[in-house]
Amino acid sequence: GENVEQHPSTLSVQEGDSAVIKCTYSDSASNYFPWYKQELGKRPQLIIDIRSNVGEKKDQRIAVTLNKTAKHFSLHITETQPEDSAVYFCAASRSGNTPLVFGKGTRLSVIA
Amino acid sequence: SAVISQKPSRDICQRGTSLTIQCQVDSQVTMMFWYRQQPGQSLTLIATANQGSEATYESGFVIDKFPISRPNLTFSTLTVSNMSPEDSSIYLCSVEEGGDGYTFGSGTRLTVV
Protein backbone atom coordinates (compact mmCIF):
# COMPACT_ATOMS: atom_id res chain seq x y z
CA GLY A 1 0.00 0.00 0.00
CA GLU A 2 0.84 3.67 -0.07
CA ASN A 3 3.50 5.07 2.27
CA VAL A 4 3.99 8.82 2.70
CA GLU A 5 7.13 10.25 4.26
CA GLN A 6 7.18 13.88 5.43
CA HIS A 7 10.09 16.12 6.41
CA PRO A 8 10.96 17.96 8.53
CA SER A 9 9.00 17.01 11.62
CA THR A 10 9.49 20.49 13.08
CA LEU A 11 10.31 23.77 11.40
CA SER A 12 10.90 27.21 12.87
CA VAL A 13 11.09 30.29 10.68
CA GLN A 14 11.20 34.01 11.25
CA GLU A 15 8.12 35.95 10.32
CA GLY A 16 8.32 36.97 6.69
CA ASP A 17 10.62 34.13 5.68
CA SER A 18 9.56 31.17 3.55
CA ALA A 19 8.81 27.66 4.77
CA VAL A 20 9.13 24.49 2.73
CA ILE A 21 7.81 21.06 3.70
CA LYS A 22 8.57 18.00 1.61
CA CYS A 23 6.82 14.67 1.15
CA THR A 24 7.54 11.52 -0.79
CA TYR A 25 5.12 8.77 -1.67
CA SER A 26 5.53 5.19 -2.76
CA ASP A 27 2.48 4.31 -4.87
CA SER A 28 2.97 5.43 -8.45
CA ALA A 29 -0.81 5.14 -8.98
CA SER A 30 -1.50 7.94 -6.48
CA ASN A 31 -2.87 10.97 -8.26
CA TYR A 32 -4.21 13.30 -5.60
CA PHE A 33 -2.00 15.16 -3.12
CA PRO A 34 -3.61 17.47 -0.57
CA TRP A 35 -2.07 19.48 2.22
CA TYR A 36 -3.86 20.03 5.52
CA LYS A 37 -3.34 22.53 8.30
CA GLN A 38 -4.36 21.48 11.79
CA GLU A 39 -4.59 23.94 14.63
CA LEU A 40 -4.75 22.74 18.20
CA GLY A 41 -8.02 21.02 19.01
CA LYS A 42 -9.42 21.33 15.51
CA ARG A 43 -9.94 19.02 12.59
CA PRO A 44 -7.51 19.14 9.65
CA GLN A 45 -8.36 21.86 7.16
CA LEU A 46 -7.49 21.56 3.48
CA ILE A 47 -5.25 24.43 2.41
CA ILE A 48 -4.24 23.36 -1.09
CA ASP A 49 -4.21 20.27 -3.24
CA ILE A 50 -2.74 19.14 -6.52
CA ARG A 51 -3.54 16.40 -8.97
CA SER A 52 -1.08 14.45 -11.01
CA ASN A 53 -1.89 16.20 -14.27
CA VAL A 54 -0.26 19.43 -13.08
CA GLY A 55 3.18 20.19 -11.72
CA GLU A 56 2.49 23.29 -9.66
CA LYS A 57 -0.41 25.12 -8.10
CA LYS A 58 -0.46 28.41 -6.27
CA ASP A 59 -2.95 30.14 -4.02
CA GLN A 60 -1.75 33.50 -2.71
CA ARG A 61 1.13 32.76 -0.31
CA ILE A 62 0.83 29.01 -0.62
CA ALA A 63 2.09 26.82 -3.44
CA VAL A 64 2.48 23.11 -4.02
CA THR A 65 4.81 21.43 -6.49
CA LEU A 66 4.65 17.85 -7.68
CA ASN A 67 7.32 15.72 -9.30
CA LYS A 68 5.65 12.48 -10.38
CA THR A 69 8.85 10.97 -11.71
CA ALA A 70 10.58 11.33 -8.37
CA LYS A 71 7.36 10.76 -6.43
CA HIS A 72 7.66 13.79 -4.26
CA PHE A 73 5.66 16.93 -3.62
CA SER A 74 6.31 20.02 -1.57
CA LEU A 75 4.44 22.79 0.19
CA HIS A 76 5.82 26.31 -0.01
CA ILE A 77 4.59 29.11 2.23
CA THR A 78 5.97 32.55 1.49
CA GLU A 79 5.91 35.66 3.70
CA THR A 80 5.06 33.57 6.72
CA GLN A 81 2.93 35.06 9.48
CA PRO A 82 2.44 33.99 13.11
CA GLU A 83 -1.02 32.65 12.23
CA ASP A 84 0.66 30.14 9.90
CA SER A 85 1.93 28.36 13.03
CA ALA A 86 0.25 24.93 13.09
CA VAL A 87 0.81 21.30 12.20
CA TYR A 88 0.81 20.59 8.47
CA PHE A 89 0.08 17.18 6.98
CA CYS A 90 0.63 15.98 3.46
CA ALA A 91 -1.39 13.11 2.10
CA ALA A 92 -1.78 11.00 -1.01
CA SER A 93 -4.48 8.89 -2.56
CA ARG A 94 -5.52 7.26 -5.78
CA SER A 95 -8.90 8.99 -5.39
CA GLY A 96 -11.84 7.04 -6.75
CA ASN A 97 -13.13 5.95 -3.35
CA THR A 98 -9.77 5.19 -1.83
CA PRO A 99 -8.65 6.69 1.47
CA LEU A 100 -6.02 9.33 2.06
CA VAL A 101 -2.71 8.19 3.50
CA PHE A 102 -1.09 10.87 5.65
CA GLY A 103 2.46 11.86 6.36
CA LYS A 104 3.51 12.18 9.99
CA GLY A 105 3.15 15.94 10.03
CA THR A 106 5.33 19.02 10.38
CA ARG A 107 4.98 21.40 13.29
CA LEU A 108 5.62 24.88 11.89
CA SER A 109 6.43 27.72 14.25
CA VAL A 110 6.59 31.25 12.88
CA ILE A 111 8.52 33.50 15.21
CA ALA A 112 7.49 37.12 15.28
CA SER B 1 -19.16 20.18 -0.65
CA ALA B 2 -20.51 17.49 1.64
CA VAL B 3 -21.22 18.27 5.27
CA ILE B 4 -20.57 15.62 7.92
CA SER B 5 -22.21 15.71 11.31
CA GLN B 6 -20.13 13.70 13.78
CA LYS B 7 -21.06 13.00 17.37
CA PRO B 8 -20.29 12.97 20.15
CA SER B 9 -17.72 15.72 19.91
CA ARG B 10 -16.02 14.50 23.05
CA ASP B 11 -16.48 11.96 25.81
CA ILE B 12 -14.75 10.69 28.90
CA CYS B 13 -15.25 6.97 29.38
CA GLN B 14 -14.37 4.35 31.94
CA ARG B 15 -11.97 1.62 30.91
CA GLY B 16 -13.69 -1.57 29.84
CA THR B 17 -16.70 0.22 28.39
CA SER B 18 -17.59 0.94 24.77
CA LEU B 19 -18.36 4.13 22.86
CA THR B 20 -20.18 4.43 19.56
CA ILE B 21 -19.35 7.36 17.29
CA GLN B 22 -21.78 8.42 14.59
CA CYS B 23 -21.24 10.21 11.29
CA GLN B 24 -24.10 11.52 9.20
CA VAL B 25 -23.39 12.89 5.71
CA ASP B 26 -25.76 15.25 3.92
CA SER B 27 -25.33 13.41 0.62
CA GLN B 28 -24.96 9.82 -0.50
CA VAL B 29 -21.40 8.54 -0.60
CA THR B 30 -20.05 5.15 -1.53
CA MET B 31 -17.20 4.91 0.95
CA MET B 32 -16.67 6.31 4.40
CA PHE B 33 -13.28 6.26 6.06
CA TRP B 34 -12.51 6.14 9.77
CA TYR B 35 -9.27 7.54 11.18
CA ARG B 36 -7.63 7.69 14.57
CA GLN B 37 -5.34 10.52 15.63
CA GLN B 38 -3.43 9.73 18.78
CA PRO B 39 -2.07 12.67 20.80
CA GLY B 40 0.64 14.49 18.86
CA GLN B 41 0.43 12.03 15.98
CA SER B 42 -0.82 11.93 12.43
CA LEU B 43 -4.06 10.46 11.14
CA THR B 44 -4.04 6.69 10.83
CA LEU B 45 -6.67 4.88 8.80
CA ILE B 46 -8.67 2.40 10.85
CA ALA B 47 -11.02 1.06 8.19
CA THR B 48 -13.01 1.74 5.06
CA ALA B 49 -16.77 1.28 5.27
CA ASN B 50 -18.77 0.39 2.18
CA GLN B 51 -22.53 0.16 2.38
CA GLY B 52 -23.78 -3.38 2.20
CA SER B 53 -20.52 -5.16 2.95
CA GLU B 54 -18.10 -5.73 5.79
CA ALA B 55 -15.69 -2.92 6.51
CA THR B 56 -12.10 -3.34 5.39
CA TYR B 57 -9.66 -2.93 8.27
CA GLU B 58 -6.07 -1.77 8.12
CA SER B 59 -3.22 -3.69 9.66
CA GLY B 60 -3.29 -3.37 13.43
CA PHE B 61 -7.04 -2.80 13.65
CA VAL B 62 -9.58 -5.60 14.14
CA ILE B 63 -13.34 -5.80 13.89
CA ASP B 64 -13.81 -7.04 17.45
CA LYS B 65 -12.16 -3.90 18.80
CA PHE B 66 -13.55 -1.40 16.26
CA PRO B 67 -16.84 -2.72 14.87
CA ILE B 68 -18.27 -0.54 12.11
CA SER B 69 -21.77 -0.29 10.76
CA ARG B 70 -22.81 1.21 7.41
CA PRO B 71 -26.56 0.76 7.13
CA ASN B 72 -27.04 3.22 4.25
CA LEU B 73 -25.18 5.62 1.97
CA THR B 74 -25.32 8.57 4.38
CA PHE B 75 -24.54 7.09 7.78
CA SER B 76 -21.88 5.09 9.59
CA THR B 77 -20.88 4.27 13.14
CA LEU B 78 -17.58 3.25 14.69
CA THR B 79 -17.57 1.56 18.10
CA VAL B 80 -14.48 1.55 20.28
CA SER B 81 -14.90 -1.57 22.40
CA ASN B 82 -13.49 -2.61 25.76
CA MET B 83 -11.63 0.67 26.01
CA SER B 84 -8.27 1.20 27.67
CA PRO B 85 -6.36 4.45 28.23
CA GLU B 86 -4.38 3.70 25.04
CA ASP B 87 -7.59 4.28 23.06
CA SER B 88 -7.61 7.93 24.10
CA SER B 89 -7.48 9.68 20.74
CA ILE B 90 -9.40 11.80 18.31
CA TYR B 91 -11.52 9.72 15.94
CA LEU B 92 -12.55 11.20 12.61
CA CYS B 93 -14.73 10.05 9.76
CA SER B 94 -14.12 11.18 6.20
CA VAL B 95 -15.67 10.89 2.76
CA GLU B 96 -14.37 11.50 -0.72
CA GLU B 97 -16.38 13.86 -2.87
CA GLY B 98 -15.92 12.36 -6.28
CA GLY B 99 -13.10 14.51 -7.56
CA ASP B 100 -13.60 17.42 -5.19
CA GLY B 101 -11.34 16.18 -2.45
CA TYR B 102 -12.16 14.82 0.97
CA THR B 103 -14.29 16.12 3.81
CA PHE B 104 -13.77 15.31 7.47
CA GLY B 105 -16.15 15.22 10.37
CA SER B 106 -15.39 17.51 13.28
CA GLY B 107 -13.89 14.65 15.25
CA THR B 108 -14.61 12.87 18.53
CA ARG B 109 -12.13 13.49 21.32
CA LEU B 110 -12.13 10.37 23.47
CA THR B 111 -10.50 10.17 26.88
CA VAL B 112 -10.44 6.82 28.66
CA VAL B 113 -9.87 6.88 32.41
Topology (elements, then pairings):
The complex is a heterodimer of chains A (112) and B (113).
Chain A: E1 4-7, E2 10-14, E3 19-25, E4 32-38, E5 45-51, E6 56-59, E7 62-67, E8 72-77, E9 86-92, E10 101-102, E11 106-111
Parallel strand pairs in A: 2-11
Antiparallel strand pairs in A: 1-3, 3-8, 4-5, 4-9, 6-7, 7-8, 9-10, 9-11
Chain B: E1 4-7, E2 10-13, E3 19-25, E4 31-37, E5 43-50, E6 56-57, E7 68-72, E8 75-80, E9 89-96, E10 102-104, E11 108-112
Parallel strand pairs in B: 2-11
Antiparallel strand pairs in B: 1-3, 3-8, 4-5, 4-9, 5-6, 7-8, 9-10, 9-11
Protein architecture, described:
The complex is a heterodimer of chains A (112) and B (113). Chain A has strands at 4-7, 10-14, 19-25, 32-38, 45-51, 56-59, 62-67, 72-77, 86-92, 101-102, 106-111. Chain A is mainly β. In chain A, strands 2, 4, 5, 9, 10 and 11 form a six-stranded mixed β-sheet that branches. Chain B is mainly β and 113 residues long. In chain B, 0% of the residues lie in helices and 52% in strands. Chain B has no helices and eleven strands. In chain B, a hairpin with a 2-residue loop joins strand 7 and strand 8 (75-80). The relative contact order of chain B is 0.34. The mean pLDDT of chain B is 95. The chains are: A mainly beta (112), B mainly beta (113). Chain A binds chain B through residues 32, 34, 41, 43-44, 46, 49, 89, 93, 95-105, and chain B through 30-31, 33, 41-45, 48, 92, 94, 96, 99, 101-102, 104-107, 109.
